[in-house]
Amino acid sequence: MARPEIGPTHDTAFFKDMEAVFDQHPEAARNYAIRYFGQDVQSLKVDFDRQVAVTNLKNGQLVTRFVDRADEEKTLEATPTTFCCEWTITGSTMRCTKFCQ
Fold first, then answer.
1. Domain locations in the chain as residue ranges
2. Is the N end or the C end of the chain the one with fewer CB atoms within 10 Å?
3. Model confidence over 49-98: pLDDT tens digits?
4. Which distant-in-sequence residues (6+ apart) come within 8 Å of 94 by Cβ?
5. 3 state DSSP class of 77
6. For residues 42-48, average pLDDT
7. Which helix (H) or strand (E) holds 2?
């Protein structure tokens, strides 16, 4: 697989705008990052409209599994320490794409 054309050198305007947002909110910015998840979509055939990632720590490694959004509430109820840790924004809609445990 070829290296994808991503990041600040490819999506210049997007990253310039994001840089301004991070500069405006330096305290919050320390807790966030911009992540490319196209690899998940392409390699693992993840459909974030139907699925959500659930990541937890096992034996010093982060393990991510993808569950159907229909099971999202069960996942949250089963583990009280589960929280949304990654979002996508489409228009004015913000949606959780990853839960951390």
1. 12-100
2. N
3. 899 898 888 999 999 988 888 877 676 666 777 888 999 988 889 988 89
4. 87, 88
5. helix
6. 88
7. none
